[in-house]
């Protein structure tokens, strides 16, 4: 536990130093000057979050034995020495800052809105590339029971979730964490099964770190690392996959071959560069492959299994290393798929390399991946032009930021260039059109709250609700715990009977929005917003901790996830001010007059309480905003 | 790629064209009066292994099957040998072939034997009857995106790949409304899962219920007198030009109102529901039972429910996972049958299963891969019980119903299966033909009901 706490405190220290470092304006201690707008400091453009002098950065490659992981960011400053010669007005207003940061991170803080206004967004983006990665595996390892044969230890198992909440809320590497989460919804593994991937949390933790470390890397590397990762190998059942046997009729497992093509790289039908379906002469979409391609590709993914180099090694550790090739289990046959034939007798490593290269260079890859990343970060229904622009960045591996400097390593599949192209595109920056925007995922709504109200003492271990948030009575979504490889919602989901569907638009997150999950989310948020954790009866939780043998600090437990409503209480006397503060902070001023007026009327009826002052009003205001369609649609 | 290798080899052995002898024409089982009727779909996500559910039992067929499945069979803790399987009566048209269910499905076998349940063999999505030869010759018109989970789930529910708007059960309910069998009702389509597509129509929107009660917003009690608060949380009259925001506020509003209505209906009702297993499926079917129990308060004459369980995608460790799933299915179906009988509603409620697809007969080491046609169950007092509709092709490779590795080419279309269920709900042939435009391409729908 000591190790974990140290890490946490380290993270806090960094966070605080960042806030101090970047604050042109007011003091970065909890400022008493509550209204974001009032604290509009006289920024000059060089006062942004310039932590590029963060020299001690333990770059992500350091603790990685996984090929060229993360090279994108370490080389970044060598590659583009120019700090930009043009003016970047992306952060011209606080509204613009709020909107951008909500797309690029796990939520905007009041400090960010205040201090980033007037600074260079390009600079912010580049400085984020340099922030050391906050990882998951160290927390999991630190929480491993002393005796490896120790039975089911929930505290160990749930570290994947606890570290996710800490990193997403308090991690300084917000852009990286957000991109990794987006990738995790495309390249899905899940520990929902209650079996191996649950019992051995190191597996999913290493996978989370793989995505975190390569969030700014290259999609080609990601595909290779994913292919060799034990978490994916187990999840899509090709770990231990044997070559076929004609005598017995045994065939190689087709699971990974199919989902690699369908979900991770190409989709099912031919796409144009703008992400729309390419049609044949009859006006019909064209299916890219059939089952012969799948059975051909399935042969490639035979002969991989857990690393056995060190016979003494714990299975938990093996699950953190790339899978090992066992040549005798690899198919010697010809492997034919998508027009490529890998010659018979080709070994496993070479077959995998050829197969991934072939898939990576397919015309569908860039539009398929780019469009889904846009959907995760900005809008469910990007225009074809927007997709084309991002595809261009994905393919060229380069993107010129508004300040004139460029990011990316000029190689196809560069995720830094892709991410920049998504966030800085005019369609992302302008007020969304009537068909724009997306539903904020429940996980993001919760982290937005935690960040917007400077939640202190982020000790999710003391919050059983956060150990599992997947039920519809909670968030209806949990990180890395999707019910299947198809994620919680599909990028192509059209909500039956809806107006969007009638217009041919998709609404992925509506797939988990229903009569149970809508109230469930509000109730979940009520618990946190009202600080019910601070009043909870924790005896039962303490018992559980005692049983596992983990130190229980009651004071910390009661203070965990404590929000700071100081700034809101200061303005709560005037409901309209409260509403407009929240509108900027959470909605980037996208709240409609109708909603605001109704809220003001509602809040005016909540009086100053003898005991709690305006706290009940503040609670209600936050809950009203965060349950409003104005907020839930990020636009 | 073309379909050259879609089939491993052509084969001379032709399975009898069973499409012709599938059953009689749809009997007119339309009901008069106000009798309540409900369909309950149990969707088995992942693709249940048909070859390990309806198992050949006569010695010849069993041996063929056992030889192919040997590496799996040797690992089952509950043996799937002739002594361990649960045999069921087989119709004479199978010419001496016999079938059994796995040991974990003894309850379902018992329901079959007592005439409460029947088997639908080799059903799956089809646009027209096809065979291995017609696929090989590339003359076959095939459903798109075969063997893909999400697309075949969608195709089972709607006839179309992912992105489809309306499911066939939703369209059946639309037809029930337009033909005057019942009025539009918020609770005519209920889901406990995310499988809402099946029960979505132009006038039919699925209502989501969890654990037998409607979810409520706790906060609202605290601000009971504050009408702006109430209006806000129900998204009442929310105005916006953004399309997604319109859809979301509609959903919030509909959900809010439906939850209130449901809780009003259920309040003050003491329900004596028999015990259900605490499995995911058991709890969902208990929810369905609770909803059915308040059918009069909800004022529904026809209801269609969808429940779901996952985990059937047994690419790996099938011997460990499949028996558990089958036992869970067995326990939940048995409990549901008991509940309907004890409520005197056995004749009014029909349960049926569906799944993404069947699986390969060939194994991949320790599991099986995606298939196409599969065998399913219908259950209830109204059905023609204790028999098998459609085909159970032999457990062998390279025949006219083998799409490769023993993936069965369906001989009964989902449309036929669904039309029979729709007929029972009270829709006539003309209406059913408009709901299922491809129906005429196939033989008559099976007459699942007495």
From TrEMBL, chain A:
Against InterPro entries, the record matches this protein to:
DUF1800
Task: State the organism of origin.
Answer: Pseudoalteromonas luteoviolacea DSM 6061
So which residues are the signal peptide here? Answer: 1-25
Q: Where is this region: Disordered?
A: 31-89
The entry's protein name is: DUF1800 domain-containing protein
What highest taxon heads this organism's lineage?
Answer: Bacteria
Which PANTHER family does this chain map to? BLL7424 PROTEIN, DUF1501 DOMAIN-CONTAINING PROTEIN
Ranges of Low complexity composition bias in the record = 31-73
- Biased segments, Acidic residues type: 74-89
Swiss-Prot/TrEMBL keywords: Signal
From TrEMBL, chain B:
Q: Where is the signal peptide?
A: 1-27
InterPro entries, per the entry: DUF1501
Record keywords, A-Z: Signal
The lineage's top-level taxon is Bacteria
Q: Does the keyword Signal apply?
A: yes
Taken from the record, one Pfam family name reads DUF1501
What is the designated name of this protein? Tat pathway signal protein
Q: Say which species the protein is native to.
A: Pseudoalteromonas luteoviolacea DSM 6061
